[in-house]
Amino acid sequence: MSAYEYIKQAILHGEFPPKMRLTEEFLAKKLQISRTPIREALKQLETEGLTVSMKRGVRVRHFTELDIRQIYDLRTLLEGYAAAQAAIHRTDSDLGEMATANDMYEKAIDQYLETGETTIEDILKINHSFHDSVIQASKNQHIHSHISKVVVVPLIFRSFYWFNADQLRHSLDAHKTILKAIEKQDTERARVAMHEHIYHGRDQVMKHIDVIDQQYTGVEEQKVSFQTER
Amino acid sequence: MSAYEYIKQAILHGEFPPKMRLTEEFLAKKLQISRTPIREALKQLETEGLTVSMKRGVRVRHFTELDIRQIYDLRTLLEGYAAAQAAIHRTDSDLGEMATANDMYEKAIDQYLETGETTIEDILKINHSFHDSVIQASKNQHIHSHISKVVVVPLIFRSFYWFNADQLRHSLDAHKTILKAIEKQDTERARVAMHEHIYHGRDQVMKHIDVIDQQYTGVEEQKVSFQTER
DNA sequence: TTATCACTGTTTGTATACAATGAACGAAAG
DNA sequence: CTTTCGTTCATTGTATACAAACAGTGATAA
């Protein structure tokens, strides 16, 4: 696993919480490598928007409620467009891939709810692969990088994805609706269905956002908070 | 000027044409600095999509006609959304900035056509600042990075922006229409006006795309072409 | 002739040393 | 007591040396 992937995962899994200061040396010691590859990783994460480089050091970016809202707006716009384009350009093999991803999704959900041998992580991955297949079917190569940038942020809050059976079923139904619209080449229906699906996901995240905000206060070094304390 | 800015400018100005191989040592010697900052610059350019890293070396990305078409589709989507949001969220000071940018645009065009003391470069910059002011008025902080990624590619072809008087006037009118719609908070009109404006710009670029494609054949090293020659 | 293999040179990947910079701390002066 | 200045230390920025990887080349064998 590259330094980039490691740090990204650590951030997304909450190991490095928002506002935490990431010094190069600290990460280098942690990964047992030199600072050089660390710097590259940090630069990349910064251009992706996951970290913010201050004058001194790099910090994990803190996303406010407004940030999440705006990011979801963009995701809705982009994935809605992808769905509409997929409805135009989809081939039979595209439909096959989307259907496969969705079948796997259904199975994973069943397994998760019944036996518990499938984890939420697995479900998120499979969900992701369905969305990917839609993007692929849109035949716009350039849209992918934009969406991946916008998709990653909510994952920071994945620990709050305590999906219950209803939510999971609802999500599966949404996928099926989207798939059907793309199959029938109904562009507007595909776009709207994707819109609703993503906005529903946003609502789930927003429910927990204040809990999240609380959890990460005081992560930045005390020196900084002392100033505020006056 | 940082290495990143230098290389980016060089690419956008056609000094490093598409498919050209950019070895780190070459750039380091050219800029009289070590490879370390060069590597960072290249990594950043790669995540922005201006260069492509092969197994051996980094090359300036070659954009096909399809690429340009798809990139413009995304730009239309994003800037159209920005215009619509601006129509909702614009403040008086936003309107002021947009109006100022547009006044400067008008003056620059007049100067360019009459006295010639203003260059196309200047006009492009001012045009850019109008679009920026719209994005700013949209109040979505995150949209900016997406648009800047998508705006930069057509600049590679800026040498083909031989705008005539008609085109420049048309562009100015479009700006005015957009501005008026945002002022009146007519979201749909703002979006559509922006759509038309950008698609018109795309058409200008597409007219010259085959000329561009021809110009840059044979830039890659001969060793590669020899294989094809059989 | 063609395929395979080892060798060579070029180029990237990584480690490390040192320079530059900025923040924190403390001392001195108002 | 507060402000300002300079010193010190932590941290990033840059250069450079070396390791690793890969493409190209030529030799050898089928």
UniProtKB/TrEMBL annotation, chains A, B:
<keyword id="KW-0804">Transcription</keyword>
<dbReference type="GO" id="GO:0003677">
    <property type="term" value="F:DNA binding"/>
</dbReference>
<dbReference type="Pfam" id="PF00392">
    <property type="entry name" value="GntR"/>
</dbReference>
<dbReference type="InterPro" id="IPR036388">
    <property type="entry name" value="WH-like_DNA-bd_sf"/>
</dbReference>
<keyword id="KW-0238">DNA-binding</keyword>
<protein>
    <submittedName>
        <fullName>Transcriptional regulator, GntR family</fullName>
    </submittedName>
</protein>
<dbReference type="InterPro" id="IPR036390">
    <property type="entry name" value="WH_DNA-bd_sf"/>
</dbReference>
<dbReference type="Pfam" id="PF07729">
    <property type="entry name" value="FCD"/>
</dbReference>
<keyword id="KW-0805">Transcription regulation</keyword>
<feature type="domain" description="HTH gntR-type">
    <location>
        <begin position="1"/>
        <end position="63"/>
    </location>
</feature>
<dbReference type="InterPro" id="IPR000524">
    <property type="entry name" value="Tscrpt_reg_HTH_GntR"/>
</dbReference>
<dbReference type="InterPro" id="IPR011711">
    <property type="entry name" value="GntR_C"/>
</dbReference>
<dbReference type="GO" id="GO:0003700">
    <property type="term" value="F:DNA-binding transcription factor activity"/>
</dbReference>
<dbReference type="InterPro" id="IPR008920">
    <property type="entry name" value="TF_FadR/GntR_C"/>
</dbReference>
